[in-house]
């Protein structure tokens, strides 16, 4: 008995579904052209930063006479005189230390308290847990401006108005709702079997939190720390109201320079770039953890 090959007309062929017009356009525009477009967009986004850097390396008269792009035709304009003047201004340089003393504790407190609360809301059973979490979610929509006057009166009664402690507490309080919401949702995706196995091995809640939950939540914690650090470092509204006017952070110090001198654009450009380079360094240092945290949240 010999096998016969069926006619070609009877062979079933897989018919590919017809792609939509946007899908075909995306397939044709993919690859090198997409990368080129992204590079161009990235260069446009970096242009203000490059302009600020080049302006900070020019003399005051050159800044007033022409735009920063003229430096490519006359590279002899580049000088570090503005940075020498900036570092000679004790108030501006001390404001960088004040900003760090505000930003670092406000970031650490938000990450620590937010992680503890997020773990509690995700895996601990206590009365009213869901209702309390709804309250936390509701606090996300409360704008900072609504609380400025009440919190100012409270801080004045407590004696911490216009102090570094008051600014830290304000940033911590308003950073916690987002921190708890973000970390609770991330911790809730940890497999229950993994936690139960750790409990069977004799791990208590503290050890379970420090040895299992925190390492698994590293990407989300890094993302939260970057968001909080950038928000506090670049803040001006809260610092303008609650910080000591004699010992302000960098944003308020630069604003005071405008009020006092008006035309010292050389100090303002170098100070603004110096204040911007710190959060940029923090972001690039934790870029991988930040991307992992964002991708983990997108996948889950």
List keywords for this structure.
300 residues; MetI-like fold; mainly alpha; 15 helices
Taken from the alpha-carbon principal axes, the silhouette is globular
Tell me the count of domains: 2
What would you report as the Rg, rounded to the nearest angstrom? 27 Å
Count of helical regions:
15
Low-confidence stretches: 9-14
Tell me what portion of residues adopts beta-strand conformation. Answer: under 5%
The chain-level structural class is: mainly alpha
Give the SSE string: HHHHHHHHHHHHHHH
Note the main sheet.
Answer: none
Q: Which architecture of the largest domain per CATH? A: Orthogonal Bundle
Fold and architecture overview:
The protein has 300 residues and is mostly helical. The protein folds into two domains: 28-79, no CATH class; 84-299, MetI-like (MetI-like fold), CATH 1.10.3720. 73% of the residues lie in helices and 0% in strands. Helix 5 (90-123) packs antiparallel against helix 13. Residues 9-14 have low confidence and may be disordered.
How would you summarize the topology of this molecule?
Elements: H1 21-29, H2 32-56, H3 60-65, H4 81-87, H5 90-123, H6 129-139, H7 144-158, H8 164-187, H9 192-200, H10 205-216, H11 218-233, H12 237-242, H13 250-261, H14 265-285, H15 287-299
Helix pairs in contact: 2-14, 4-14, 5-8, 5-11, 5-13, 6-8, 8-11, 11-14, 11-15, 13-14
């Amino acid at each position: 008995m010999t096998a016969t090959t069926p006619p070609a007309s009877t062979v079933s062929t897989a018919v590919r579904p017809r792609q939509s017009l946007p899908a075909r356009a995306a397939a044709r525009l993919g690859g090198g052209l997409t990368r080129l477009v992204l590079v161009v967009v990235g260069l446009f986004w970096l242009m203000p930063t490059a302009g600020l850097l080049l302006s900070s390396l020019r003399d005051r008269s050159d800044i007033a006479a022409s735009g920063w792009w003229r430096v490519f035709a006359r590279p002899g304009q580049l000088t570090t005189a503005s940075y020498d003047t900036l570092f000679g201004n004790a108030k501006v340089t001390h404001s960088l230390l004040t900003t760090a003393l505000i930003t670092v504790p406000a970031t650490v407190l938000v990450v620590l308290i937010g992680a503890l609360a997020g773990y509690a809301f995700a895996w601990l059973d206590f009365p009213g847990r869901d209702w309390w979490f709804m309250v936390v979610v509701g606090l996300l929509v409360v704008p900072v401006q609504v609380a400025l006057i009440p919190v100012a009166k409270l801080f004045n009664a407590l004696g911490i108005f216009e102090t570094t402690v008051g600014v830290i507490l304000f940033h911590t309080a308003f950073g916690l709702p987002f921190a708890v919401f973000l970390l609770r949702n991330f911790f809730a995706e940890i497999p229950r079997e993994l936690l139960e196995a750790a409990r069977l091995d004799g791990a208590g809640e503290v050890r379970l939190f420090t040895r299992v939950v925190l390492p698994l939540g590293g990407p989300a914690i890094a993302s939260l720390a970057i968001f909080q650090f950038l928000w506090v470092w670049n803040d001006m509204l809260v610092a303008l109201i609650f910080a000591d006017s004699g010992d302000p952070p960098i944003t308020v110090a630069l604003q005071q320079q405008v009020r006092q001198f008006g035309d010292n654009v050389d100090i303002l450009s170098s100070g603004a770039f110096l204040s911007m380079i710190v959060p940029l360094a923090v972001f690039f240092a934790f870029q991988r953890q930040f991307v992992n945290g964002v991708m983990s949240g997108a996948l889950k």
